[in-house]
Amino acid sequence: MLRRRDEQTIGRIAALADPVRRALYFFVARAPGDVSRDQAARGVAIARPLAAFHLDKLVAQGLLEASYRRLSRRRGPGAGRPAKLYRRARLQVDVSLPPRQYELAARLFAATLAAAAPAATRTRLRRSARTLGTALGRDARGRAGRRPPITTVLQDCGYEPFRADDGTIRLHNCPFDALARDFRPLMCGANQALLAGVVAGLGLTRCEAVLDPQPGLCCVALQQAR
User: Fold this and answer.
1) Of residues 147, 125, 124, 127, the one with CA closest to residue 137
2) Cα-only R_g, the chain
3) Contact 43/27 with Cβ under 8 angstroms?
4) Alpha-carbon distance 193 to 5, whole Å?
5) How many other C-beta atoms lie within 10 A of the C-beta of residue 176?
6) Does 130 share its domain with 77?
7) Judgement on whether residues 147 and 64 belong to the same structural domain of the protein
8) Mean pLDDT of the chain
9) Percent of the chain with pLDDT over 90
């Protein structure tokens, strides 16, 4: 018999089976900020009422979060009603059949390292992360038969990259978010080293991975090397 949590998880994934709903979810997830119903409707080329229906279904499933805010600077009578805005929820949805608890094992290792590891051990962790990242970058080059764009490799790794106005590549998603929330210095340092390795494996000499935490984004960004 399935646990209630498993039933909820399957229901959330089933909610994304509808192609329109799935398109709306990923449009909101990849947006740099909160998304209005009008923006979402234009983004996936559907009517606003249909967008509102599916967005609210995603909120009901816990996949999106909603808030209200006026989008204009007008205040007082005549300013209009606040717009309903959407963002991706912090909820993490995992499915494993049969059930596996890899995150539990990762938490065990991270807690041990964070509590007892001397500086030399953390240095070795970052070195191992960079080695793994370099292998990922080289593997991506080998599979593509050329040097693929860094954003493609980051997307494949689950980082959801986007290019900011200043040219910096920022990351909507941290694949290690569940661990980084509790073991931030440990995981952010390893994450930076991993992405520095990816850059090296791709042979990018004018790009560097730096720690630059921003609200709602991964703590690592990729900038033009100084």
Assistant:
1) 147
2) 20
3) yes
4) 35
5) 21
6) no
7) no
8) 88
9) 50
Two tokens, residue 70:
């006026």
What spatial distance separates the first Cα and last Cα of the chain, rounded to whole Å? 57
Cβ 113 vs Cβ 185: under 8 Å: no
pLDDT at 77: 55
192: domain range?
102-224
Spatial distance between the Cα atoms of 50 and 38, rounded to a whole number of angstroms: 11
**Residues 55, 74: Cα–Cα separation, whole Å:** 26
End-of-domain residue from the set 54, 88, 122: 88
Q: Classify residue 19: in a domain, yes or no.
A: yes
CATH code of residue 82:
1.10.10.10
Alpha carbon distance 74, 209 (integer Å): 41
Contact 62, 12 (CB under 8 A): yes
Q: Which two tokens stand for residue 18?
A: 């509808």
Tell me the torsion sign for CA atoms 201, 203, 204, 210.
positive
